[in-house]
Design brief:
repeat, kinase, nucleotide-binding, four-stranded antiparallel β-sheet, Diacylglycerol kinase, single chain
Amino acid sequence: KSALRRKCAACKIVVHNACMEQLEKINFRCKPTFREGSSRSPRENFVRHHWVHRRRQEGKCKQCGKGFQQKFSFHSKEIVAISCSWCKLAFHNKVTCFMLHHIEEPCSLGAHAAVIVPPTWIIKVKKPQGVSIPGDEPDWAGDWSPEGETGVSYPYWEGWQNSLKTSTRRKKRTSFKRKASKRGNDVAEHHVTMAVLFPISKLFLAVVSQDNKGRPFVIKPISSPLMKPLLVFVNPKSGGNQGTKVLQMFMWYLNPRQVFDLSQEGPKDALELYRKVPNLRILACGGDGTVGWILSILDELQLTPQPPVAVLPLGTGNDLARTLNWGGGYTDEPVSKILCHVEDGTIVQLDRWNLQVERNPDLPQDELEDGSRKLPLNVFNNYFSLGFDAHVTLEFHESREANPEKFNSRFRNKMFYAGAAFSDFLQRSSRDLSKHVKVVCDGTDLTPKIQELKFQCIVFLNIPRYCAGTMPWGNPGDHRDFEPQRHDDGYIEVIGFTMASLVSILQVLPCLRL
C-alpha cells in the first residue's frame, strides 16, 4: 500500500501506521538491548540471534553464497531473506539455506563484536514496590515466549509506537586522543530514528546517580582483552544535519543503549554509568566543541584509566579532527569502516591547557570593570585567542544558540563566518587590541613587538591546524629559528595576526611567530 509508514533504527523493520498493531499479533519484538535483573532470570553470557524476515536484502546468503532477489518491499509479500539484526548474517528463506539449528544458536555479534556492548552486560534494576523512579516507562505487558519464528520473542510495550519516527516516503590507520517481563527475561522496544530521542535512551540516562539509588540500569561487564566497548555521542547541532543520519546508522550497527543524542542529554550520566567498563573507548560525533565538552566531563569524573576519544567530524572547522587524522568533515563514509578505525586506531597524547583569570593589579580601582573571573570553559584543546577571530567566533556561537534552525549545513555556517568576519573588518572593532594587552612568554616580554606590529588578533596555538585546516605556524623547511609544531610536545605556540595576515591565512600564508 501507499501510506505513511515508520522505520525502526535498531532492527530496520518498516511498518505502515495502520499495521503497527499487527506486530503484537505476530509476536515480533525488536532486538533486546538489556536483561532484567530478577533473580528468577538465570544470566546467559551469550546473545542469541535476532532473526527478522526481510523482503529486501543486500549481500549474499551465508549458506549458499548466492545473492538475494531484489524486489520492492511494499509491492511484494514474498520473504526473500532471514537476517540477524545483531550480526547481520543473512540466509535465503529456504529450508536448504536457513536451518532450524540457527534459531537458538548463540550470536557472535558480527564483525564489530569487539566494540558492541552486549545486552547481557546491561541489567535493569528491579524497582522496589511502591517506589517510583523518575523517568521510568510504562509497565511491560505480556509474557515471554520462547517460541516463535524469529527464535527470540519479547514482551510488548504498548507505548513504543510513539518512539518511532514517521516517514513520508511513499512508493518509492587513524589516531585517538587520550585524555518487565513477568518472568524476568529480556524486553525490547523499537527505537526512534531521530524525531525525538527514543524512550529507551531517555530512561537509560535520566536517573543515574552516584550511589546507585534510583538508577534504572547497572553495567556488569565481562572483562576480556579482546573487547573494546564503545560509547557513541552524537551532536546533531554540529555542522549540518548529518548527525540525524549518523545516529540512526550507529543504532543499527551497535546496541542502541551505547549510542546517545547530545541534544537530549549531556554525556555525564552515560560516562558515569559506564565508568567501570574495561577498555572503554569513546567516539565523539560532532565538532571540536563537542569533543571539548566530552573531555571536560572526563576531567570532572576522573575516570581511571582515561578512555581514548575518537572523532567523527560533523562540525564546521574540525581543526582537532584534522590534526588527529580523522579528516575535515564526514563525507558519508560507511559506518562499518568508521567502527573499524575506532577499534584499530592508535592512541596518542594530546596537550590540554588550563586558563587562569585574574584581575589586573596595575589598573586603578576606578577603572576596573565589573567582569566575571569565571570563564565558560577554563581548559582549551585547540587554541585560545584574543581579538578579531574570537569576536567572530563568539558572534557565530550566540547566533546559533538563538536560531539553531538557520545553521543546518556546513556551507551555511562557513558563509555566516565569512559575513561576520567582513562586518567586523569594516567596524575594525579589534584595531586597538595591541594597546590593551601584555604578553610574556618564558620570561620574555613580547608586548613591544605586539604594539609595533599592531596585531588585531593573538592566538595561543596548541595544535597545527587553525581556521578550518590552515597551518599558520608553517613548516620549518630551511628555517632553523623555530621547531615544527606538535600536539603532544608540552609547548604552546604564540602567533599574532595583523589584518593583512588574517586575510592572507585564507591563502595558506604563514602568520607572524612570536
